Amino acid sequence: MPHPEQYCHSCGMPLSAPDARGPSDHYCAYCTDSEGNLKSWEEAVSGLAQFLDSWQNVGNEEARKRAVRYLTSMPAWADRA
Questions:
Q1: Is residue 76 a part of any domain in this protein?
Q2: Count of domains observed in the chain
Q3: Range of the structural domain that residue 66 is part of
Q4: Residue 27 resides in a domain
Q5: What is the pLDDT of residues 39-79, one digit of tens each?
Q6: Residue limits of the Putative zinc ribbon domain (predicted)?
Q7: What pLDDT sits at residue 4?
Q8: 53 inside domain
Q9: Strand, helix or coil at 77?
Q10: How many Cα atoms occupy the beta-carbon half-sphere of 16 within 13 Å?
Q11: 60/33 Cα distance (integer angstroms)
């Protein structure tokens, strides 16, 4: 029986993606520190906003709004919705 795909509980990235697997079983390498601890809310929002703006070119303010809207739909951040 195939093993179901696992996703980061913070950003939704497939943990099978290149460079995604870090020390945590629940979070990707981009959402954690070197010990596998989830980064702060502000670090998560800033990192995702920078990524979104880099390919959507919407500006920092709109990218932050989109990052907050997206992250609060994820299990790790649902309490911030």
A1: yes
A2: 1
A3: 41-80
A4: no
A5: 999 999 999 999 999 989 999 999 999 999 999 999 999 99
A6: 7-77
A7: 81
A8: yes
A9: helix
A10: 4
A11: 24
